[in-house]
Amino acid sequence: MQAAQQPQGRGQNAPTAIPLTHQRALIPASFIEFPTQRLYAISAFVLLQAFKLYDVFLVYYAHYPEEYNGILLKWWLVDAMLLLALWILQIPWLQFSFFKTGWLIAFLMGVDVLLFSLPSATISAAFVKALLGDALGKQISASRGQLINVKDVLLNSTHILGRHTVHILPYGTAKLNPNDEYYCLPGDGSTKDVFIPIVLNNTTPRSISVSRYDFETNEHSIIDFSGRDIQRATEVSQGKQGLEYYFIRMQKTGVYKLESITSKDGLDVRLYNRLAYVFRCPSATFLPARRPDYCSGEKDTVQFRVSGVPPLRVEYIREINGRRVVKKMDRIQPEHYSSPLTRMNGGLSKADSTFFTPQYHQVTGFGWGAPVIQTVDADGGAFDEAGDYKYLITKVTDGVGNTVEMSPDSPSITMAKFDVHPEPTVHFECKATDPVKLLIGDDKTKLPLTLEGSSPWELEYEFTPELDGGKTEQRQARIATGVSSLWAHAPGEYKLLRVSDRFCQGNVLFPSTCQVKQPPLPSVEVQATPIPSECAGDSEIGMKFAVELVGTPPYTLEYRIMKQSGKSKVMIDKKRERIDRSRHLFTYLPSSSGEYTYEFTSLDDRNYKNRNTGILPIKQIVHPQPDAKFSGSGSLRPYRTCLGEDLELDVELSGTGPYTLTWTFAKQMYSDVVTGSRHTIKVPRLESAGHHVVSLVKIQDANDCVKDLDARDVIIDVRRDRPKVFFHTGDKSDATLFIAEGESAKLPLRMTGEGPWKVTYRNIDKDGKGIRSLVLRDPNAEVEVKETGTYELLSVEDAICKGDALPPRYTVHWIDKPKISVVEEMVTLGANGIYERPSVCKGVHDAVDIEFEGEGPFYCAYDQYVGTSGRRDRTFLHTEEIRSGSSKTWIGLQTQESGRYQYVFNKVADARYTRPLSLKPPLVVEQTVHAIPTVKFLAKSKYERKVCVGDTFASDEVGPIWIELTGKAPFTVRLGLKHHSEPFGKTLLIENIQSTKYKLDLTSEEVTSPGQYDLQLLTIQDANGCMGEASGSDALLEIDAQDIATIVPAETCAEHCVGDTLDYSLSGIGPFTISYQFNGRNEKVKTQTSRLSLIADKPGNLTIISVGDQRNKCRSFPKDMTKIIHEVPSSLVSGGREIIENIREGEMVQATVDLIGTPPFDFEWQRSEAIWDSSKKRFFKGEVLESHSVHNVEGHRYAINTSVEGIIEVVRIKDAYCHYPRQHL
Q1: Residue 619 to residues 529, 530, 572, 573, Cα–Cα distance (Å)
Q2: Given this model, what pLDDT does residue 171 score?
Q3: Which helix (H) or strand (E) holds 173?
Q4: Which residues pair with 889 in a beta bridge?
Q5: How far apart are CA 272 and CA 259, in angstroms?
């Protein structure tokens, strides 16, 4: 037995905006969520329908269906109550209006009727009669010639009446806990009860006495039950054949045994010596952890407390950081514990049946069933892994086999939970080669730390001052979350000693020391030395500085150069010298004369920024020396040009102007007077190829100061040949190129020189004086043109100089366009320019040839249109494309449907014009396709035609036959006339039909034999020469040739019984009229079919007189057609009554059977199980226990002697002629 604990659900807060469907709900979502409500509702509906199907099964296979007569009403009420409950609850998605709820109730009631009514004969008959009436249950009676109910004849239950019930009065028995179940009650104070079954046989209890043995106190007590304390089980859920189940409620643990039962009818009740055990359900819970937090490596023990009947088994989960491990612990019991359960594997479910008897426990007693409480160590040792620890009980099983399963989401009392924290660590992020700096003027600096653990941290560290003889101090610091540094207020050595976080003591990692240094302030000393002029000893051209620095390199020294302009100073330059050593030299040379002041503004080193230098300004009057250099002289690339080209070079000058500049070229000296700071030298025309050098020699300024120049020379590379361009035409003086219209041509070029090239050209025929230009990078490039004409090159210029454009010229012409035409022998050209193809009939294949002009392969496209002859409107069908490798091909013409077809060729292409060209005007071919003529019988002629043998097909009985024709008159029609029995018929030809409606003349054709004739239209031909075949139902006309009506019996047997069906076969055309005599009385009946069926409802003689067809013209009078009908035999058990006879065991009774009919008799009787229904106070027939057949009884009475209990009845009887029930029923 298992008991499961389920978690309690929690309601969700309702949303702010509540939909209207949610507002209607009777139970709000805060109490039970709507999906859960829908699940409950649908589950209830499905469960009830499953019970309903179970009831249907019981009804269908019941031996006595009358005992379930009230089940239909029960399910009507259940379905109605369920749907009304849904209407009241108004669950979202299951909200029905009151009208829809009523409709659903009516629908389910109808389903219930179909399910439960069909097995019951009385209800089924009423249902079928109400639904279908008597149409399916009536047949013509032989005695009166009228419709009667067949069931009144066939289902005449008066032929077998009466039954004899023999009842042997039994003794009663009672058995407690018949299935050897065991139970448990929870020990958590809940009011759960246990219901123990008692099975009673043939008795109804008035009172029950049960003894109880207490496991824990060893006390015995008697408990009495009577009245409502004894609960009877329903037959649906617990009923068994011949047994009744009752339940008694138990609220305490112990061993229970039946002591006595008093029955209502005073019969003796025999008691089985059986026991029922009610134990305390097992339970287990983890004890709370001693502390909520542990440190990694600490040791402790986790315990749980378990209670129940030993030996106990517990399953629990140990979860560390989300990783779950399932653990089991079994054989939990006190020391020196003895119990029979320790020798059983699987508990009482595997125990022998004798374990539930008092004799088994005469020696050991029942003390083993008392629960015990044990405290067990679940886990112990060191907690090596840090993280979240959880211990959860999932299942506990006692020695009996009771199991309680718990979800991991159970209340926290079943869970032990604590955290194991890692040890904190700390270390400095300092480097011995780069100590932390505490700058002069700062109160403190940060010592970078790396901390791991749970904040806050407590640090203990040691400080040794930097000064010799300083006293070492131990200090403490508290660092909060997010802070990862320690403040240092003085230079010296800081050493970490200990660390702890909120939970644990930790470890100090290396590096654990950090040096703090205090660097000195930077300073600078500057020594300035004027730079004298080479031309005049009393003039200065600049200043030379020597600086000495103190501090931590690298240094940055910033100074400004101020120039006196009138009465004010203007800053003309600002310099920053980056110095990586303690001594540095640098100079400054102004470019123009004037009074200059040098101001040293700031000094930086690695640690200190923007420190004042303390250096006074230094003044100087400067007269700079003249100088000159080529612009862009930093480039080493030579100037390149061609022979005969002029070249200019730019020169930059500095000093006091005006200047006299001396330069050389080709061993010639040149001198220029320059007034400004820039000058352009014009190099003489270059007449020889090779390398030429231009050099600046010297310069003289306004102060007559002359300076020899060392500026970089300019090298000029003079190329011997000039660039050329010409069209590449092979060996031809001029070239001609043919291209398709709309396409482009590429004219090949050849160029000399160095790219890129700029080329100009023109189209002589179209450009006139206009010029086209291109920039090309390939010496074998091509010029792309899209116009016809003669192209001429005009000029070329490469990357260095201009060149010459040479002949020849290039001429471009269009290629002739492709053409398409139709072979003239196949068409006729009309006055409107449209080609006409001779007309054809629908379905006749036709084609037309077309020819191409151009260069293959060829392509063309044409549109197809269809219209009606004589009308201009037309309908577009589709576009077709043709690709052909030859200059002549054909196209298939559309002849599948009639009409006026037009083929418009509008596009053509060939190998040279690959892009299709539009044809203007298009090429048009037309053709007329004639429709196939048709012929069919008019709808007014399509009716059932009948004729007698000997008449012609043109008689008034047949009626006029009209045909309808389509096409162009005159027409020729071919018909076929054939009898169904003939392999071949005859063919009729009708010519020169001038109208589209025509009446057939068949006066020459006579009906020679009865049966079915087919008049079929075969072919038609019209004036266009088109021929069509007639088919389908409209081309066929059936004519029925009738013979005289006759009647013959379906069976040759003349002897029949009441209830038999008398069948006759009729020939001719119905409806038929049949005259007959029954016991000398004349009757007449009609039938619409060729079969007459009469039911023999009474005994007597039936003789057929005559039969006629629907016209009553051809009648027949059969001879000697008589049937004799006998009555069905009957049997009466005990005079046809239901007799119940009670006897004791060993007594004998006699049941008499009266037989009615014509001897000899054969009959079969059965003895069935007698089932007593206490609610209805009657016996129902159960399973058939025995069956006997009796043969050749010549008398009319038979006696059956028996001493066995059961219901005796006759189930089958037969006399000399008939039997009941009928075998085919």
Answers
A1: 11, 10, 14, 15
A2: 66
A3: strand 172-176
A4: 850
A5: 10
Average pLDDT for runs of 10 along the chain of length 1225: 36 50 76 84 88 80 58 86 85 81 87 70 43 56 82 80 80 84 83 86 85 90 88 54 79 91 75 91 88 87 89 89 86 85 81 86 85 85 84 90 79 75 90 86 89 89 81 87 81 91 89 90 91 78 90 91 87 90 89 87 91 90 84 71 84 84 88 88 84 88 82 85 86 82 86 89 87 90 90 90 88 89 89 89 89 89 86 85 84 89 92 86 91 88 72 69 88 87 83 86 72 86 88 83 79 87 82 87 86 88 83 71 90 87 75 90 90 79 88 89 88 90 60
- Phi and psi, residue 673, nearest 5°: -95, 125
> Omega before 590 cis (within 30°)?
no
Beta strand spans in 589-689 (E): 594-604, 618-622, 627-630, 639-642, 647-654, 659-665, 668-674, 678-683
For residues 401 and 267, what is the distance between their CA atoms, to the nearest angstrom?
A: 39
Task: Look at residues 650, 660, 661 and name the one whose alpha carbon lies nearest to residue 683.
Answer: 650
Distance CA 416, CA 462 (A): 42
Q: For residue range 1181-1198, what is the model confidence (pLDDT) as tens digits?
A: 888 889 999 999 888 889
1153 half-sphere exposure, CB direction, 13 A CA radius = 26
- Side-chain-facing half-sphere of 603: CA atoms under 13 Å: 23
What does the chain come to in residues? 1225
- Residue 111, C-beta contacts closer than 8 angstroms, at least 6 positions apart: none
- In the block, which residue shows the tokens 């400080």? 463
How, if at all, do strands 415-421 and 293-295 pair? parallel
The strand pair at 163-168 and 1206-1214 is best described as antiparallel
Please tell me the predicted confidence (pLDDT) of residue 951.
Answer: 64
Q: Tell me if 768 sits within 8 A of 845, measured CB to CB.
A: no
Question: Roughly what angle, to the nearest 10 degrees, separates helices 98-117 and 34-60?
Answer: 20
Q: What is the pLDDT of residues 517-547, one digit of tens each?
A: 989 899 999 999 898 887 766 788 889 999 9
pLDDT in tens, 871-881: 778 889 999 99
DSSP string, 435-453: PEE--TT-S-EEEEEEEES
Which three-class secondary structure state does DSSP give residue 591?
A: coil
Residues 837-864 as b/e (b if ≥16 CB within 10 A, e otherwise) read bebbbbeeebebebebebeeebbbbbbb
Q: Coil, strand or helix: which one is 34?
A: helix
Tell me which amino acid residue 254 is: G
End-to-end CA distance of the chain: 52
**9 Cβ contact partners less than 8 Å away, ≥ 6 residues apart:** 32, 33, 36
- Residues of 1092-1109 as b/e, b for ≥16 C-beta within 10 angstroms? bebbbbebbebbbeebbb
pLDDT attached to residue 557: 92
C-alpha span between 604 and 521 (Å, rounded): 10
CB half-sphere exposure, 78, CA atoms < 13 A = 16
Q: What is the DSSP string of 179-206?
A: T--EEEE-SSS----EEEEEEEES--EE
Q: What is the DSSP string of 35-103?
A: HHHHHHHHHHHHHHHHHHHHHHHHHHT-SSGGGGTTHHHHHHHHHHHHHHHHHHHT-TT----HHHHHH
Three-state DSSP state, 1081: strand
